[in-house]
Write a structure and sequence with these properties.
single chain; mainly alpha; disordered C terminus
Length: about 500
């Protein structure tokens, strides 16, 4: 406990910046994903009323469902577009400038959507949702990279896992804001849809007081003084020679090496297994069953005989459980390591899905069986939050060198947004055909991914980027692999941030 408090004091600048990045980063996405479900009936009513005013007859039900599905899915299309441009913008302008401009885009989008009811134009919601998607697609990879690069080695896992914490916090905040007693009402839904501008405004006002990431300043801007100043502001006064040595080793390894494009990265033999890991981790998050769990919670609670008003609060408790679990993940990830949390989390979640399939099959036989299903569902969400949710983000950031990180995150974001779109369109049909037996598909994915992680993912805890790269080179080159001798840093690069 004493060590934790001393770290909070020593690295208070870092912790403050983590909060600022989180509020305008993954918090924003989680909030939008969860809050849109609470305004669906009001937006549909608004579309119908607007159509009736314009054309004198109500909109056909099929057309209404089509417009609503476009309203929801256009967010993912925008995300796909935004993530595709993140590599170019990050390399050219830096992460800080990109995030500041991105916040302006989100604020404009929020204003457009908030004025849609006053202007009697549902098209403004479509435009705003698309702009929000572009902003989200850009800010997620920026948030992940930024947090990883500003953190010292001993706090890197904790810092990276906070992206999942803020994502879950955003989802919980969206669920709370969407309650009928707050903004989830017929008169206040425009405020709910426009409230995404508030986190963007907070980051826009506060981020200018924080520095660009130290590795970016030293390796791309050749600003040694700016790098030391950034380290002093984020990590406090003291000796940080080990971290500076890591940056210098990576810079030496990158000499005469430019930031790779997406196509160049896919052809790079030294990054082959890192890309395999990105694909496996992203696919597993999409196919782990967490979305199916939230889908079935309402049905399980109905079968247990709970009132519908009470069910909305109980599903909220599920989101809060995930929030607490991601906070726990942030506190234990540096002790247990990423590999243990991923492998163990996948296997426990797979076992829980098997048990949930059994209890859902038997819930009509015994009156107490729905309560067992509910307990297993809560446990599943907690395990997801404690393990894979935070550890996945940490591994994504740590396994790539700075020259490969921007295009790697473009690939990761592209796969993630594509997965959101594909799963969103196919999942209802899967549930309709297989019912709760769809969990068996997710169970198979989890056990397979757990075995893959156990066999091939090197532990990244407490290692520098160059050390992790050396581990992957054993897989990338196998018999051709020749260990590289460490790059010793000369006295010219011995820095100290103590005044």
């Amino acid at each position: 406990m004493t060590g934790f408090l001393s770290d909070v004091v020593q690295y208070r600048g870092l912790f403050q910046m983590i909060v600022v990045l989180g509020i305008g980063g993954t918090f924003q996405i989680g909030f939008q994903i969860s809050s849109i479900t609470y305004m669906s009936q009001y937006v549909k009513t608004f579309i119908n009323e607007t159509w009736l005013e314009r054309y004198g007859y109500p909109i056909h039900q099929d057309n209404l469902l089509f417009l609503w599905s476009i309203t929801v899915s256009i967010f993912g299309i925008g995300g796909l577009l935004g993530s595709s441009g993140s590599r170019y913008l990050t390399v050219k302008y830096g992460k800080k400038k990109c995030l500041l401009c991105n916040n302006l885009l989100m604020i404009v989008a929020a204003f457009i959507m908030g004025c849609s009811k006053l202007a009697r134009s549902f098209e403004m919601i479509l435009i705003g949702r698309f702009m929000c998607g572009v902003s989200a697609g850009l800010c997620v990879p920026l948030h992940h990279q930024y947090v990883g690069e500003i953190s010292p080695r001993k706090l890197r896992g904790f810092a990276n896992s906070t992206a999942s914490f803020f994502w879950t916090l955003g989802k919980a905040t969206g669920q709370i804001s969407g309650q009928r007693e707050l903004l989830g009402s017929q008169s206040l839904w425009p405020m709910l849809i426009a409230s995404c501008g508030l986190p963007a405004l907070v980051q826009l006002v506060t981020l200018p007081f924080f520095p660009e990431s130290p590795p970016y300043l030293l390796m791309h801007k050749e600003d040694q003084e700016g790098c030391i100043k950034a380290i002093r502001q984020l990590w406090g006064e003291g000796h940080h020679q080990a971290e500076i040595d890591d940056i210098m080793k990576e810079k030496a390894a990158m000499k005469n090496t430019k930031i790779l494009s997406v196509l160049e990265l896919t052809k790079e033999p030294a990054s082959r297994w890192q890309l395999y890991m990105i694909v496996i981790l992203t696919a597993t998050v999409q196919l782990c069953g967490i979305n199916a769990i939230y889908f079935y919670t309402f049905e399980v609670l109905q079968a247990a005989g709970f009132d519908e008003r009470l069910i909305s609060y109980m599903t909220l408790s599920l989101g809060l459980s995930e929030l607490v679990a991601t906070a726990v993940c942030s506190s234990i990830i540096e002790r247990l390591g990423r590999k243990v949390l991923l492998r163990g989390g996948y296997w426990i979640m797979g076992s829980l899905l098997a048990a949930i399939t059994v209890t859902l099959s038997l819930q009509d036989w015994y009156f107490w069986m729905p309560y067992c299903s509910l307990c297993l569902i809560i446990f599943f969400v907690v395990v997801f939050g404690v393990g894979p949710s935070g550890a996945t983000v940490a591994v994504r950031v740590e396994i790539f060198k700075l020259s490969c990180r921007p295009p790697a995150f473009v690939i990761n974001s592209f796969l993630n947004w594509l997965g959101v779109f594909v799963i969103g369109t196919t999942f209802p049909f899967i549930v309709e055909r297989l019912k709760h037996f769809c969990f068996l598909i997710f169970m198979g994915v989890l056990f397979t991914s757990g075995i893959f992680i156990h066999l091939f993912l090197p532990e990244t805890k407490g290692k520098s980027v160059m050390e992790i790269t050396e581990e992957f080179n054993k897989l990338n080159f196998k018999k051709k692999y020749i260990p590289t001798t460490p790059n010793h840093i000369t006295e010219d690069y011995t820095f100290c941030t103590r005044l």
